Amino acid sequence: MSLLTLDSVSARYGASQALFGVSFALAEGEALALMGRNGMGKTTTVRAICRMVATGGAIDFAGHDLTRLKPHRAARLGIGLVPEGRRCFADLTVDENLRAAARPGPWDSAAVAGLFPRLAERQQQVARSLSGGEQQMLAIARALMTNPRLMILDEATEGLAPLIRQEIWGAIRRLKAESGMALLVIDKSPSELSSVCDRAVVLERGAVAWQGRFGEMTGAVKQQFLGI
Ligand code: ATP
């Protein structure tokens, strides 16, 4: 059974329409890549799921109709978002950021410290003084502390140095292997995505151009819709 189902979802920013009937489903524990070139609607799809943009169509999450909910309710149902641009509370310490997000479940301070030892060493440091990569780890750790059933990672390694990117992908792979959590992952690197995700949905101008298993993605699809 699907955990998340989008059925003919449209979205608009004022007069300008950004999504045109997007449909796909994500099963419990599955990792799905959301792909497409710049401006094709990946972040808008995430905003539609998280109730941050006006939408049409139907979005079901664990039997709840998300289109009827306000954003904070969607989060409480078990959707953890790591947004583009890694937003944390800049003036709070690492520990305070984590505690502000905490909800009951297996992901507590000790568990996220195991995933990101660098954060554990910086518990009392204010978020604004962390490096970009450490702030990204904190953004992921915060989402984990809400103990979600679905984690959405929007460009989690964008603009980071190669070594830190590897560290973050390593953590995402561990989440996939060990947590049983469903993942929706947006990134520019097809090779990293295919190392974590079972399937991919490819967007083109706000609509699904292709979806299927990574191994079935043809060269023509890659060239036409991803520019690879
Ligand atoms: P990127 O890889 O660049 O982040 P994306 O696939 O995530 O791209 P979106 O950010 O979802 O794409 O953008 C889809 C379309 O919606 C684009 O045409 C974009 O210009 C438009 N758009 C995005 N955000 C807004 C906004 N706040 N107001 C108006 N239009 C927007």
TrEMBL record:
Keyword Nucleotide-binding in annotation: yes
Keywords for this protein: Amino-acid transport, ATP-binding, Nucleotide-binding, Transport
Residue ranges of every copy of the ABC transporter domain listed in the record: 4-226
Single biological process term from Gene Ontology: L-amino acid transport
Highest taxon listed in the record's lineage: Bacteria
Gene Ontology MF annotations: ATP binding; ATP hydrolysis activity; branched-chain amino acid transmembrane transporter activity
One Pfam assignment: ABC_tran
Alphabetical list of PROSITE patterns matching this protein: ABC_TRANSPORTER_1, ABC_TRANSPORTER_2
Protein family per UniProt: Belongs to the ABC transporter superfamily.
Stated name of the protein: ABC transporter ATP-binding protein
Organism name: Sagittula stellata (strain ATCC 700073 / DSM 11524 / E-37)
